[in-house]
Amino acid sequence: MTSTPGSAVPTAAKMPRPSEQAVRTRRFSPAERWAHGATAALMLLCIASAACLYVPVLAQAVGRRALVVTVHEWTGLLLPVPLLAGLASRALRADLRRLDRFGPHDRHWLRAELRRERGPRPQGKFNAGQKLYAAWIAGAVLVMLGTGLLMWFTGLAPLAVRTGATFVHDWLALAVGIVVAGHIWMALRMWTHRKALRALRHPDGEPASGGMNRP
Amino acid sequence: MNPTRPDAPQGTPVGRRIVLGMLGLGAAGVAAAPLLQRGVEALARQDPTGLTDALPAGGAFRYYSVTASVPPKNARTYRLRVDGLVDRPSTYTLADLRTEPQTRLVRDVQCVTGWRVPETPFEGVRLSRLLDAAGVRPEARAVRFTCFDGAYSESLTLEQARRDDVLVALRMQDEPVSHEHGGPVRLYVAPMYFYKSAKWLSGITVTDAVRPGYWEERGYDVDAWVGRSNGREDAPTV
């Protein structure tokens, strides 16, 4: 390959925009990204404060119990608010509908995923795994909210119910922690995959990518 | 067009069913909790690895502190001050407290948040003994406790403070009270919820009226009898 020397003075030739930028569309609307960001921040604070209340090593290191309790209670209470506010957005409502409905292709996707089959897996905007996660975490947050309120406002229910609520809150907290960690892990994996894929498809004119194929 | 268009608006509302299912499971869990709890505790008792201690409700103590950090005190640096409405204010070292007659009590510990640790030995000096030594004045009605964590406080009526099962505890679980558990000296109020048993005890002040303590200013009951306060019906510890 021969290289052509560039002009030393400005020319009229325009550099075309990389095709990547031109065709790239946002997967989510600003309202959806805002709702997700706010929910994520509240969820992380809620989990972190829970860990400081529950894990002895962290409880000892952090102390300040009254403050940590307040943070946990309020982040937990506010957790559903961003999604509820986001319902004003048409795009978010449309995505909720997509997450809710399962078609035959979702069953196929799940089967293929569980059996680790290769081959094409049809999916819409969301795959069946993402749909399951969304529904499960929504239900779990509501249960955590309900049991949490019973523990917070001790006058609401008799002791037997409060003890039961504590039991469910403790164990479901463990499950939510694991599932949310899985969600973040898969998102990070997806993100690095996408970045790698983009770099392969659109080498951004780096000379090294041409040189790689040279014998 | 693809017959199974992935984002067709029709399709089974599986998401909604999962959300409702979670709510149902949550309610069922609340109802079945006593049964499940017994199962978990039975499992934890047979666990030689100790892994179950990390799980919820492993039947162990949980560490609560209201401040960021607590400076450790040892036999050299620890002091317990007895003052207020008394004739002879005094200061005890750890060695002084050890020379006093020791009382050992074995009772369940019940926390107001629900956990209970069965049959926990506490050993120390009866509070009534220290009060008598100081000479409580006739106008006194209550005792206030302060702690060297710099924030926590507790209080008892004089009558409660003179009970035989209220100790200035030097030993817990047949070992010196560790720093994590409020050592070297903590209060032990056997018949009440465990927040009354103030950790890191450093001051005993006889007063003319009960002053609500740290958690009591935040809504807990001042008279914290196990099973008869804080809206709870736990089995009494005494």
TrEMBL record, chain B:
PROSITE patterns: TAT. This is Molybdopterin-dependent oxidoreductase. Residues 69-215 form the Oxidoreductase molybdopterin-binding domain. The chain crosses the membrane at residues 18-36. Keywords: Membrane, Transmembrane, Transmembrane helix.
